[in-house]
Each structure stands twice: as C-alpha cells, then as structure tokens.
Amino acid sequence: MKPTIDMLKQTSIFRFCFCAASGLLALWLALISAGQAAALPNILILVSDDQGWRDIGYRHPAIATPNLDRLASGGIRLEHQYVFPTCSPTRCALMSGRNPARFGILGPIAGKSTQRMPADMVNLARMLKSRGYFTAISGKWHLSLQIENGPRNYGFDSTYGYLHGQIDPWTHEYKAGDRTWHRNDVFTDDKGHATDRIAAEAIRLIQEKRSQPLFLYVAFSVPHTPLAEESRWRDPYAARFPEETRRLVAASLTHLDDAVGKIVAAVDSAGLRENTLILFTSDNGGPRQSGASDEYEGRYKSQVGPLSDNGPLRGWKGQTYEGGVLVPACVNWPSRLKPRTENAVISVLDWLPTLAALTGFEIKEEMRLEGANLWPLLSQGHPVGARTLYWKTGEQSAVRIGDWKLVQSRSGAAELFHLSEDPYEKNDLAAKQPQKLSELKAALEKEAAR
Hints:
- By secondary structure, this protein is of the alpha/beta class.
- It has 2 domains: 41-383, 3-Layer(aba) Sandwich (Alkaline Phosphatase, subunit A); 395-449, Arylsulfatase, C-terminal domain (2-Layer Sandwich), CATH 3.30.1120.
- It is built from 11 helices and 20 strands.
- It has helices spanning 5-39, 66-73, 87-96, 124-130, 194-207, 231-234, 244-269, 322-325, 351-359, 375-380, 434-449, and strands spanning 42-48, 76-78, 81-82, 134-140, 158-162, 173-174, 178-179, 181-183, 186-187, 214-219, 276-282, 289-290, 305-306, 329-332, 340-342, 346-347, 388-392, 396-401, 404-409, 414-418.
- β17 and β18 (396-401) form a beta hairpin.
- α5 (194-207) packs parallel to α7.
- The longest helix is centred in the first third of the chain and has 35 residues, at 5-39.
- The chain is globular and about 60 Å long.
C-alpha cells in the first residue's frame, strides 16, 4: 500500500517531535552537566619538598613565610598530618590513596630506576578527570623517571616540571646532567629559577579561561638540596642563622612562600577563591644535614651542614619516628571551612577518598583505598574514628594504632611509645608493656602481609 499524504504528514510531525524532544533532552543533560561542573570546587594542592616540622613561620618566627601562615590561620591548621618518610612514597600515597609499600615503593625512585607507580589503576588525577576536571601538574613528579612514563600517563591533561627527585635550581638538570625538565612529555630548556618557573606555570593555568573545574598539583623543588637562592632571599637571614646551609633553607622557603602568595593572588584575581580548596603539605620530614658531593659538577660542594629543624620531634627524613613523618600542613577554603587548629590524626592517604566524596566520585571496593573521608571532620568536626597507620622503609617499619606506636628496626630492635603522653618518643615502653608490644607487632605483621 502506498503511503497517503496524511500518513506522510503524520510521519513528518513525528520526526519533528522526536528530534525536538531529543534536542531538548540533550540540552537538559548539557545544562545539568554544566551545573554540576560549576558546583564542583577547584582543587589546588601545594607540596613543599623536605620541609621540616618547625621550618615554617607559625612555628619558627625567624623564618618568614607570611603567605603560608595566612593560609594556615585562615583555614584549618593540621597538627597531625602524617605522610611517609621520603618523597616518592608520599607522592604515591597522595595520588593512589594506597600505602606505597603495596607497590614496593619504600624510598625515593632514583638514578636510572625504571620503578614507577602502577599506571593501570584509579588515581587522583584520573578520578578528577572522570568528574570533568581539567587536570594539571607543575613541578616535581617523582613517581616514574622516564619521559614516556610521565604524568600524562596517569590522567594529567597538562604537565610541566621535572621527573626526578631533585634538580639543579638553575639548570633544571638532575645530578650528572640528566635531562628531566619537561612540558607534556617533551624535554624543554626553560630558563629561570625552578621555584619561579613552577609558580609561573601554575599562574598561567589559573588564568586560562575554561568551563571545567581545575585540579592543579603544584609540587615545589625546595627546600630539597641542592639549593641556590639570589641575595634578595638570602640577605635577610645573614644574622639569623650561623650556618650557610640553614640560611639557604630559610631563604628557599621564603622564596617558596612568595610563590605561594602569587599563586593564591592569581586565584583571587580570577574570581575563583570562594570555590577553591587549597591544601598545603610537605612531602616528608626535614633531613638532618647535607654533605659534600661531586654531583652537579661540584657546584654545591660547599653546602655542608645542618639543614632542617624538626624539633622538638624525634627523627629525620627517611625515618619512621615522628620527625620523619609529621609535617606542616593546612587546608583552606574560606567559604566552606571555618578557621581552627585540628589535632585529629590524619594521613596523606585520606585526601583521595576525601576529594572523591567532595566531587561525587563513587569509591569501589576493588580500589582498596586505605584512607578515610575527612570531609565530615573538616566541615563539621565529626571524628574520623580509630586509625591504623603503617610505614615501611628499607631500614624501619612502624605502626600507629590509637596513641600507641611501634617502631621496628631491621636489626630486630623494637621500640614502643605512647604518643599522647610522650609525643617526642623519648620513653621506650617495650620492656614495660609486653602485651601491648605483642599486640602492635601482630598488627605490623598483618600490615606487612597486605
């Protein structure tokens, strides 16, 4: 039967209605998506490298860090933010939400190592990218050293900085001239001090016009050695510290602080401040001292002496004592978080699940996350609950459960501390508390077995 004129009219009307409805549905979904994107906060994570517990203005007035002090006083100052004893493990924990020991990352990835954080799993950048974020890193990566395994393989849309654990501040090279400074997986020879270059890239990204929310990870190179600072940063410390190495650390931190101030000012100028969460943390406790070295063609052989101030905590970078794993940290979001000092025990492992909850990302069991969602604590003061924290290096392992902490050396020596009564780990209770010692040793073995 041939179609009649009426039948053709009805078909045309149906097609028109169908297309119109489809268009309206697409528009509605687009508006919902745009509304959700607009509601999502921008996320700015700032990380210093090897900053000691006391090497910040609000704990040590001789060191000028007014911008970091302002972030801490205007936000939540985190007095018990635990990280890992060295840089690669902490960065792995931040990115993955899992203990770095699960991947065999027990210390810095160095030299020509091909070790890397697994790329085939959900990580912070990939998670936020799936929620519609533009994801960017400026600064230190240190979770893989080869350019082909750089941050773009882990969910970052834009990458700039260096792959290794340390660099010459001016040449941007690693130790014996290895190239490591890059932009989007291509080595580059940009000029200028690393602190300034890292900050300039962060500011450029903030100033770019985009419809997406921004996740920006800014990982500074200081106060990690080798250090080189201009006289404008060094001169104020000429009479404050007798050792050149301490003056350089302080100068590098004031330089970093100035860069942080410029980055936050860029957020303000772009009109993003009210909807931007800023997290600041060091990657590990400060190192005790630096020694003479022929690396970097001998340019920094004179930098011999004490570096960090972790006092009154015990221990240094690379150790599982409190001085190696407790760091200066704060989180700031004026429109959502009221200023205060927070003494709850938290871990760098907590930030991925916290940001997942904040951005509506569904955590699945197979991700095997080991952190806690901190948002109820940060926004409303609700307690996180009982925590078990675990650390492992080549020389030590440690576990903290409640106020009790066990430090187990590879030599076999075990030390037991009650941190609420002995926060500086001076009183070893291993001989006096055999039952508690046995309990924590069992917990340590359980964590190691995972």
